[in-house]
Amino acid sequence: MTAVEAPEADEEVLEVTPEFEAAAERQERRRGFLLALPEFGYLTLFFAVPLVIVVVYSFATRNRFGGTDLSGWNVDSYVKLAEPLVREIFFRSVWLAALTTVICLVIGYPFAYYLATRSLRVRNVMLVFVMIPFWTNFLVRNYAWRVILGNDGPLTKTTEFVGLGEHEYLFTQTAVVLGLVYGFLPFMILPLYAAIERIDRRLLEASRDLYANGFQSFRHVLLPLSMPGVIAGSILCFIPSLGAYVTPEILGGAKTTLLGSYIVTQFLTARNWPFGAAMSFVLMAIMLAATVVYFRKGGRTL
Amino acid sequence: MSKQTSAVEPHGWTKFFLHTNGWLVYFFFYAPILLLVVFSFSDSRNVGTWGGWTLEWYAEFAESRNARSALSTSLQIALVSTVVSVVLGTMSALALERFEFRGKQVFDALLYLPIIIPDVTMAVMLLLFFSQFFELLGTVFGIELAKGVGSITLSHIAFSISFVSVVVRARLAGMDSKMEEAALDLYATRWQAFRYVTMPQILPGIAGGGLLAMTLSLDDVVITQFVTGPGGTTLPVYVFGLIRKGVTPLINAISVVMLVASMLLVVLSLLLERSRSGSGTA
Amino acid sequence: MSAAVELTAITKRFGDVVAVDAIDLVIEDGEFFALLGPSGCGKTTTLRMIAGLDFPTEGSLKIFGDEVGTLPPNKRPVNTVFQNYALFPHMNVLDNVAFGLKMSSVGKAEARAAAREMITTVQLAGLEARRPTQMSGGQQQRVALARALVNRPKVLLLDEPLGALDLKLRQEMQGELKRLQEELGISFVFVTHDQEEALTMSDRIAVMNEGRLLQVATPEEIYEKPVNRFVANFIGQTNLLEGTVENHDTVCLANGARVAAPSEHATGTAVAVSLRPERAHIRDRGDIPPGETSVDGIVERITYLGNARVYDIRLDWMTMEVREENRPGMQVCEPGTDVSISWDPSAISVVTD
Fold first, then answer.
1. What ipTM does the predicted assembly reach?
2. Rounded distance, CA B197 to CA C100, Å?
3. If you classify domain C5-229 with CATH, what class do you get?
């Protein structure tokens, strides 16, 4: 912490003047600026500058050795985004991310409502057991499904035993969606819970008093009022699902390559950095657009 | 919402559905984790098969030089990045919540970006940055630097620092700034006001932010994988590499150790939460 | 002996907004002084400038003759009781009260002894180990007082000290504050938007509006002889009868009626005659006691208050309120009755804008 001292008037000057007031104000601003400076500087160097480099790289040329020439600027990488293979991966990613989000919403909304309507004691205990998976290592949580869905894992054996025949679960899109839902369901539940918990229960009573049935009261009162939570939860589910890398790598196969994995491939194996940079940039643009929409809708919590 | 049952309380099928859904969600959350724990004690080469109790895999983990060094690398990185994030994050939280200064809005926006950006994108950014940066150092100053523990730590700070700021700032926002004025009025200097009045009250926020930073650091695979180099293998990256080569019961054991570490952090944060509500501001 | 607080041409601007506009104010030692006005009138800013929490833009600010306008709060011999108290929630009562002494490097033992003594003075002995959050509003108020007073300030500043308390407790604390102030003999400067509170407690009141000081006087003078329309309206209820000055003894009302109203204003000045509802009386039409002034009207509405009734009387050009105390056997007029309103010429005051 920087040691901040009281604004010290020059002992000689004891006269109130607009200049003194302005100097005191300037000192206060400088103090705030200095406090923010280390992190501001850090994020500028390790976030803003890298962001600019990504943009620069996306217009660069890949040379024959898999390196990148920072010359011969072109938009080839962006043109390449329109190729059928890339399009397929892109739409598959969006589809799976959207599916994940919808499933999380469908499971998460009733759950969040259920949570919000328990007595305070019960609710606190239940919340703790939602927080635990939220904090638990993501890699480990995905790996658990790898074990369960494996060829001789418990689930396969159970279905065989019950007589449903042999099933391949691992390395399918279903496995990936399952892993994503498992990973991001807490991210959906918590903002939903926060939004629903805030709603005054008397509003629902009022709607019933005004002749709404249970569904109408949900449709016209509860849902609109909890919309900020729905949007926040959806964004928190959708964005990481779209950029997911760990889950498809562990639970998916060759046919389930998603945007995140594809970008990683460009850097670690295919060595087409400009193209990888262009895709990262597009992914980021989508994310930014989604966030801007969220804040426009008046959301505040993230 | 009140405890007493009211007419809007769901009943019949709706109530049944809500209850069932509730229990199913918890089953969904915990069954895989519990199975993983069970199988980590299973005496079978097959990861998902039960073959009687054993501690063999934990012993293997303890004996594995690679695993142990990955664990210590992870802990070192987590510790350093947490401390730096907490100090810098708390300072900027104070600046944003208690001061006005030029460039505040730009900073505020910049602060939120690392939180909402997908980690693959952040990984790409940092990979390109370090490549360029080290090349620049090499050509201009003749300094040869390679990616490794240093670049990983710098990257972890870059993505956790904002989380700390946001958590501490929320805590500061809940604290009446009149308290600080009261301290000044009672003859405290600015530093004393921070030390004796502000800091004790935002301490749960600072600690909560620190735990979050530590969790994020111990969780990360993608970014670390991009900015790593010789000697820079963290435990998650090590485990991830093992999984890709083929699952073994050793991974089960390591996973459970990581699970226990996560749980410890959760318990700590919950204890903090309790102390937070215990001494809440009136 | 110099005044406790002396403001000369003190101005505070926030950007283009003038919060306090060149006010001159002298607060004597040992005075219970109120800064009264609606929210946003600059009263809190004035108090904060005395405390050192805001620096004035221009002017001179003296405490017991010493210029302090450029000193930070921790270098001023004044202490503040904050609105909502701003007690430190992570400290117990004893540590809260001892805080100021510890900061001014008084020894720990000595600080605690002084704190204990002050806690006893505010009648909280035995509660030293409590956290402020475990206390009632009234108790918190006492802790806040003790925390400020233990430092032996030369002036005590209080920002809406009773605003957070319910009516009963507020009345009790009013007496308590008055007692403490008389006991300590230092001046208390308090900010309030509650005119009744200001009237009850203060030796003198400064009425502020839009950054300006409108009137500084005793409660009685402020109530009886408000200097302008705003003060007359803000302090208590009043009827303002518009008119113009005819001569030093007479004002010609809007309907042409002439009423006895002594004033210093020049002939033709637009003025209003301020008449408090309880100073006017309802009479049968034309039945005016000798020496009183009257106007005629019709009873429009009666509001029953328990100890009094308020009559809305419709005149040709305005509606007036008259308040009659309830006394046994008193005659009650029905709405629609033709009546006269009369008052003693000394009951009114003539105000301008």
1. 0.89
2. 12
3. alpha beta
